[in-house]
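Mods, move this if it's the wrong board.
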Amino acid sequence: MRITVKKRLLVAVLAGMVAAVLVAPAAGAGEGRQLPLAAALCINKAQAQAEEGQIQEAVKTLETFIAESEKGNHPYLYFTLGNYLAMLSMDKGVAGAGKKAIFSYKKAVDADPGFSEAWLNLARCCYEAEDFKGAAHGFEKGYDHSESPQAIHLYFAAICRFQCDEAEGALVLFDTLLKKHPDAVTLAWKEVLVNILFSLDRYKQALPYIEELAEKTQPPNRKKWQEILLQQYLNLDMDKEALALALSLTRTDPLESKWWKALAHIRLKSGNGEKDQAKALADLLVYGYLTPMSPEEKQLAGDLYLTLDIPEKAAGVYADILSGRFSFSILEKQAQALVMSHMPDEALSLINRALSEHGSKGTPGKNMIRLKKDLEQIMAYREDLRAYTALKSQTGRPLSQLPDDTKEIQ
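Not the wrong board. Structure tokens:
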């Protein structure tokens, strides 16, 4: 099973994990952020307005000061204005406020490229605007310039890179994450990493993470990763590991039908000889007890019965398949099983009925006609053999020693 990378799901993960409250700057962080008195008074006024729920008034206060004051290009002014605009966009749904917030944050980082909090809030707004490349860049810059870099921001950057089809860039970020913050990487994050590696066809590299997820993920999601791991072992031709895992799963979770089916196929893929075929048949039968078999699965069971020289069982399985549909190929196998069970009369009757009801046109019908002729020859031979045996018992001599006129009578 190949994992389908579901980017919408990754967006939902990011949306659920990015904090709803915008990042506030650390006290005293950054050089050159000492506010002029007039700018500080303006920000205090805007803050008071916002605390009273007058966010639009707070925005107007800041915009007016920036436009009219010589001190209006301070990064913290743009940062604060961006915060209130972002609130209008995210909380109030004010049209156009999000774009204005992005512009304000960009002005803040242009004035102070080391302004980590502005970068992170810019990333959040870019994400809301579905500018995933801009969001990734913002998270990366916010992480790089932070006094205490947070693993979560590097993780967000990786998801955004992946979201904008930059899987290689996302993987580079994950490599950094694993090196610098190994203890912070959760199982959920490793699921995302597996998706990234699969999108790059790096299945071998993903295998250790899949093994960990199959072992440590809590039910019911664990079963999904166990199935993925089993499939990856098979895809990578790791038949020994696949067999060991399938055996373990049938013992620890014996009521799950898919493990028995998988075990049967693994035995047939990697096994040799009748012993493995017999075990595969047994596994398939357990699967059939747990869930109804499809016609294809029943056919596999019938074929295994036939291969293992249990034709009576094979004939019964093929008859069961044909009770719901018609197939010349299945009927041919059923006839073969009947012949192997020493019932050529039933086989011939079956073929005659099929030809009568379904015709003899096309390759399947022609095959049936050939099989019919073969069976008729067998039947004729059996009749001759019976006659020979009866005559020998009557005369006590083999047919070759009888007079010519007696041979003709017989």
